[in-house]
## 1
Amino acid sequence: MAVRKVSTPAAVLSAARRTGLMIEGYCVKCKAKRPIADAVEEQMKNGRKAVKGKCPTCGAVMFKILGGKATVPVPPPANPSSAPVAAPAPTGSEPAPDPSQP
């Protein structure tokens, strides 16, 4: 049987589900490595992907960080030359112009 390397965290979970393999994690209650039952992929606050599920032996919650930050592509500006240019901010040595005087 050929071993296929999967690089992205989402691909790890989907490949495991497709092939029927379970993702293995460490159960703190059993103090042993066990397959994670009912695995669900989640995204943590810091953007990293993780798998959350239950220990098949004791039922404790298991959590495995898959690594790799989720990135959102930022689209480039449509036309940088037509972007509005803001007026320079007044410096501390010059008084701000009074709008009531012409």
## 2
Amino acid sequence: MPSSLTLVPGLQKAPPRDLALPMKLVARPRPGYATGKPKLMVCVNERAAADGTSCAPRGGCGIHAEVLTALEKEPLDVEVAAVRCLGTCDRGPSLRLAPNNSWFYGAHVTDVPAIMEQLRTAANEYRDWLVRQPRQA
């Protein structure tokens, strides 16, 4: 290691989230300044990590596919995107719902019904926001 780099004593990378734990949801309401349609970003990143901490090998691709399948059965006014990294590899598979900035950590395909519930809420908030907008002449 070059001499210009030093490690902070006691600072170590967190171990990957145990997928046997239930999904952790950090839900937030739609901010008043938000103008866009809700967008769910699902991390499907696969990086070369010896401990398998990236989202794809931990189930991110399967979650993305299941959400898309659920939206075919129940169309909602939301966007869904597969993204390469959300920066939360040790807590993945991770999903982020914008513009609310709600996060889902350690998600599993069995959590798709709970994810869909959050998408329903976000779609309803967006619809309510659209109704309140002044009409263009």
## 3
Amino acid sequence: MIDKKSRRVVIINNIQSDTIDQAIFILKSDKATEPSKSLDRDISLEAQKIIDNYINQVERLKKVQEPFSTRERNRHKPKRPSFFLPVTLTAGFMLAVFFLMIYFG
């Protein structure tokens, strides 16, 4: 299908981000009819702000979600019984039996 309206497209490459490789912006038609150097500069600055805001939001979400997901994982882990309590109870029982054998034996 061919659209008879022409639109200006701005493609930004070489974005310094681990997340974004390329950004494509389609300009609104009312601004696309008046090309000029100042408009091009304004468009580039606005596009860069949009990209920077997106990257900041993604990084903030990663920082917030990572500790939460670790905490959630640890909360659902079954707790292993302590080693100290069974050993102490066994030793106490054995001492009680030993003293009972000496006292009654």
